[in-house]
Automatic annotation (TrEMBL):
It comes from the Bacteria. The active site is at residue 48. This is Glyoxal reductase. Keywords: NADP, Oxidoreductase. Pfam families: Aldo_ket_red. The record marks 73 as: Lowers pKa of active site Tyr. InterPro entries: AKR, Aldo/ket_reductase_CS, NAD(P)_OxRdtase_dom_sf, NADP_OxRdtase_dom. Residues 16-257 form the NADP-dependent oxidoreductase domain. GO terms for molecular function: oxidoreductase activity, acting on the CH-OH group of donors, NAD or NADP as acceptor. Belongs to the aldo/keto reductase family. Substrate binds at residue 106. It comes from Propionigenium maris DSM 9537. PANTHER family: 2,5-DIKETO-D-GLUCONIC ACID REDUCTASE (PTHR43827), NADP-DEPENDENT OXIDOREDUCTASE DOMAIN-CONTAINING PROTEIN (PTHR43827:SF3). The lineage of its organism: Bacteria, Fusobacteriati, Fusobacteriota, Fusobacteriia, Fusobacteriales.
Amino acid sequence: MEKVKLNNGVEIPIVGLGTFKAKGEEVYNSVRVALREGYRHIDTAAAYKNEEEVGRAIRDSGIPREEIFITTKLWNSDQGYESTKKALEVSLKNLGISYVDLYLIHWHKGVERARESWRAMEEAYHEGKIRAIGVSNFTMYHIEKLLETAEVVPVINQVETHVGLPQYDMQNYCESKGIKLTAYAPMQAGKIFDNEEMARIAQKHKKTVANIALRFLVERGIIVIPKSVHEERIIANKEIFDFTLDDEDREAMRGLWDGRRLFPDPDNCYF
């Protein structure tokens, strides 16, 4: 599995397993399958209510902890200096681990709350409880305001990214700050499977539509965390390193850019 080096030297596998909306034995089994098939990057969040099952699957896999990259996230109601510290401890306990590889602020809920949360995360980072810290669903403005007081630059901004919302400007901005992009919803929450142009490109390369969608992002250096609870799809989603897209493919996929969000606008997060 290819890896991306973050601005603090930590390496993250470029393909991970997303676990949004996966619960109970379903998420436990999907993480076990992913780890068995060579995944070493698992993405979860306090808000997903599945950290315990994810942690149990990781332990039961028998794979050494240090070989697995685990991401979790700080939920909106837990933002703030003291509450962030408490929330991190809860996540570590739920996951059954002593440190998390990446901890993200899940959504921006105001400049001051972000700054206070970040201060607590920086302290945990220096204490070794977190190997890298970052943000999720932050706009360029949100990042600019955070950087005014941050001592540690975020390593990642995790945002909705796919052919319909390719985030070219966001990626250029983040890269200029040394921040990598992670794409969630890379398959447009399933909408991409009805796209005839994507099906044509997939047939051309003898790959799945999901493979094409992921390759489009990975070739740009974007980390991807496709979510699936189906064994065959989990296996297929990592088979993206034995082919490349050509200029004709990329041009056709750029034509699918419509700017439509499937998830809330980070500037108008109502929860």
